[in-house]
Structures
1.
Amino acid sequence: MEEKNNKPRVIFAKKTAKDLLKSIGIKNPPILIKDVVDHIRKERDLSVYPWAFGDNTDGIQITQGDCATIAYNQSQHSHRQRFTVAHEIGHLLLGHTSENSVFDLDSKKPEEAEANQFAAELLMPEDMFKKDFKNGIKNAQDLSRVYNVSEEAVWWRLMECRLIMKMG
Ligand SMILES: [Zn+2]
């Protein structure tokens, strides 16, 4: 097999998430996974299941022909589950659907960075996030509540959107 060492397509991943939110018509947080899945289902076959994975697997996405299946770890926190499903939807919409590839078992692949970018933009859209931050929701706990994501995800997003600077 050919070894690929491509850079992640960050802009493409973000744009795919932005376009999706726009076509669903979501303008305010929290972004509900159900709304996103229902919208995708209008155009393609997609099933999303909770699954009893072990501790080391967050989720998987398998696409065969027109049928896509996403399973997420049912024993993790709901914040984690939301991020996992968003990440797997990223794999699906970014075209990581080759039947011979299991992306999530090799986190160094550029596809994983792309799916993470997609998930972050989907659940914490940059424009909404910046607006809320500017309007005074500056604490990670409050942002976590408003966006229904983990505080850890909020900290990453704040740094990524340059709303706070890394110390040191
Ligand atoms: Zn992945």
2.
Amino acid sequence: MEFSLGHQPVLLQEVISALRPQSGGRYFDGTCGGGGHSFAILDASRPDGWLDACDRDDEALVAARTYLAPFAGRFALRQGNFSEVDKWVPHGSCHGVLLDLGVNSHQLTSDYRGFSFQHETAALDMRMDRSRGTTAADILNHWEPAQLERLFWDNEESHARRIVRVIIEVRTTRPFETVGQLVDAVRRAAPGRPGRTHPATKVFQALRMVVNEELPSLRQGLQSAMRILAKQGILAVISFHSGEDRVVKEFMRQEARDYDLPPNEPDLPHLRRMRAPRGRLVDRKGIEPSENEIAANPRARSARLRVLEKL
Ligand SMILES: C[S@@+](CC[C@H](N)C(=O)[O-])C[C@H]1O[C@@H](n2cnc3c(N)ncnc32)[C@H](O)[C@@H]1O
């Protein structure tokens, strides 16, 4: 199947088996991208399932609108952050919610969005929603050295200190504007080794995640998703990064427990405040792509799907 953004939806069969879309059901795709998963949800919920979908990226929505045209009248698309879905989708109304985190293929391959270290002349932008927010260049040019070091270190960049030293040296003579400038700075600090992942991979990922406030959006989005789900509704989340997956795993485990803890307290029996569980873990370890899927779509390699049923 061809997708309008050239994007192959990851773990597609697994997502559809988890959501079990049905005619008459209502679904929310918070990361519509080019519409790959949305298409399959609409297809499986013929003849009259309904889909609300959003993306922060205006270009993705243009592609999705065209791709989903065969289902006109059965879906609504809007530009927005899934963290705020509880402001526009009625609470308790949805039978399934999907969040397929991260970036879409167009963002990664485009030569002007700044997400990829391969397009060196692109501006260092990296915003999914280009109508608001701070760009990657703003961060590189204005953050304190210690803030930058923490950002890269938290994203498992072991050369964080050396890289920040070079960034500070470069920006005192000329502000960062292009992808090429950042790639050169990282290479000077930590050249990497041939055949290994690109030395700027983690720096780019850390900047993208902070530019788009991805972890705060995810934490808020998981809460919002639970509000719009009906009882027995399914929350399915695909993450591509250990930091994201940790947030999803901890959230789902907490929903499935029968107690709360006071903030920042260890899990000790006498501190537990008992309550009814709000969810049921459908799969304890999460679902990973098959070897066949990884061979056909290497981007799927780091994907993990976690599923929770609302009680
Ligand atoms: C991995 S792609 C989704 C691909 C899509 N499932 C498909 O099959 O075509 C992730 C998409 O989520 C969007 N996105 C990421 N974080 C978002 C957020 N907090 N709110 C809305 N959209 C977001 C990105 O712009 C990107 O288009």
